[in-house]
Amino acid sequence: MASSSSAALTSSTFDVFNTDLQNIALKATRNAAMLPADVAFHRSIDSSFAREVDGLSARVMNLTNKILVLVGTADQPKGRGKGKGRLDSQDDVMDNFHSLVVDSMDQLLERTDICLDDFLGRNKAPAVAINPVAPKKQKQPLPKGHLDPVIQHAAHLQKPQLSFKRKPDNSDAPWYPTLTHKYNAKVPLGHVYTDETDMDNDSVIANHPYRYEITHLTHPSPMFTPVDPIQPRSFEETPLTWINTPAGLQTMIEKLKNAKEIAVDLEHHSYRSYLGFLCLMQISDRDEDWIIDLLALRDDMAGLNEVFTDPEIVKVFHGAESDIVWLQQDFNIYIVNLFDTYHASKLLEFPRHGLANLLEMYCDYIPDKRYQLADWRIRPLPEEMLQYARSDTHFLLFIYDNLRNALLDRGQSCSHSHSLGLPSTPTTTFSSNPAHALLNQALARSAETSLRVYTKEVYDATGGSGSNGWDSLAKKWNKGALMAGGPGVGIGAMQREVYKAVHGWRESIAREEDESTRFVLPNHFLFQLAEQPPADMPALLAIFRSNIPAIVRKRGKELLEAIRGAVKQGLGSKEKNANEDVVMEEAVPKVQEEEPAVQQQPPRDGSSSVLWASSSNNAGSSTSHSSLFGSTFSPSSHNLQSPAFSTSKSALFGKTRTSGPAPVKGSSNIHAENPRFKELVARINSTLVIVPTAPRVMTTTMATTSTSTVTTTKVEVADGIDAATGMQIEIPYVPASQRQTARTAEEKDTIVVVGQARQKKRKR
Predict the structure, then answer these.
(1) Closest CA relative to residue 397, chosen from 283, 233, 281, 263
(2) Residues annotated as region Disordered (predicted)?
């Protein structure tokens, strides 16, 4: 056995080794069975025997532990690399022998049987292939907390736009493209493209040199063929190139010309600039990653149009709405044959559509979202920021493959149920296969995104409209009193004037200093200044406490003057509106005095059949004579032709108006001459009682004269009424101490209540 163990085990010597091993194991088993039961007793009385037994036990346990270690190494490829336990004492042998030794040997024997069956061909392949279950990967813990303030906002940096050859234009002047050479052109540069679908309106679409190429694009045929997604290599295996020279940029362009698809992403900065500018561009193909320093190559980027406008190369972006505009604004770069993964995720109805969600879904990679707010002007970039920027495009082509396959699969299933139809872009060539409908929709939406044109938004100081307007900001913050339709007078009007003035001041200073409006004056400070206008400089600085913006510290006097002027204007408009109200109140009586009397017209025949007869030829809507109060207007000879709203004859009071003008003098005593009026006054006053007078009803006879008949009517008149005036006589007030009351004799009357029980007194 010693010779066999020292020599290397081969297939020719395996049989001899196996036979010797079985003989030795059998001999050891027999010797163990022949041990007497009183070994422990002899060990306790013989020290030399005890030493031999202990040494043999240690050798056996050491050999057993070595075997357990070998069994553990056989389980490590299966992901069970913790290994087996150890036998350290006699108690471990008594308690854990079955779990450690017996179970391990059973596993080895079972594995041996399986391998023999596979070798002899006894195991058949399953009818349905079952993919092995992938082991669960432990998610990488996300970093928490805020970024270093130096990374989030590098206040120590000099503004890069100061060194740009082409200075930013912050005015409201319109922007026009300055493209000098048009790569991959189907129509020459300067061609005015007219939309054929809108010939009636004669609309000329300008400012996009590649509109014709985008709307007449023929997509490559491999675009509509499912492919096996190409898994991206790791960061360590993929080369990364930092480009900050024109030579390096040209080398990258030559490599990109041979690519079929590329992934592109941008990093933008807008906090220390009014219009903002691009700082970084990331590009990836299937083999390499590039990061371009746009601050150093700002004047050399137009040559990238040779690749970006090539219709044979698919440009993969995610959420390119802003990227398309930024490329035009800074570099005059345009995109032809765009595939936006955001539109694909929307069509596939994913619960979330961000790039971070797609990276986690398809690549099991979770980017550090904190760097979305980082200051990308920093040079040199920290390693963490480089890895974050690189990850945006490194996995994007793999995501593009999966999304394209998903669109084709979903379109295939939808084509059996209903047809989605072709997109509403007749000039672009799409696949007519119904299974490609969803992919056609994604390409059509991507084409609409690439047709976006950069335009400057004019500041509306009057109406406050637009994304940068004061009214839009007030609506966004739900400030109703500061909106365009707020109160016209009072404190609310003054606050709105201050808000408009401060908002306009912030806009003008931001353009002049080439800073963002957020840097000049944050929004919450803007609303605080409008709602609590400061009266002096200490009050102005107290609003900001210790966080005074740099521009306010520099130009706070201008801000204070703007606030004071707005307060004065707001309060002045309030006083003006109040004065206008007083003038209107004084003008009303003058208008009534100068209003001419309306000429009366005779009534129509047969008008007495109704309560108020209508007169179609009535000259006005009012009369100058009243049967109850007499004349109220001065006579006039002016006639006003208007519809009639009154009548000259009443079925209740009879004829009261005459064809001639009403008398002016003595008309106030007409009620004394009219018996009908006196009768009405008496009837009204008869129901009025003034305490303490007790009314006494008396009967009088009054004659009522009508135009045709005379009747006698009995009217009840209360005592104390003057017959001349028809009014009740006033009784002077007598104080309670001066009143005399007559005593009346009390009548003795006993009230007997039958059947009522006597009430018991309650105990207190």
Answers:
(1) 263
(2) 586-641
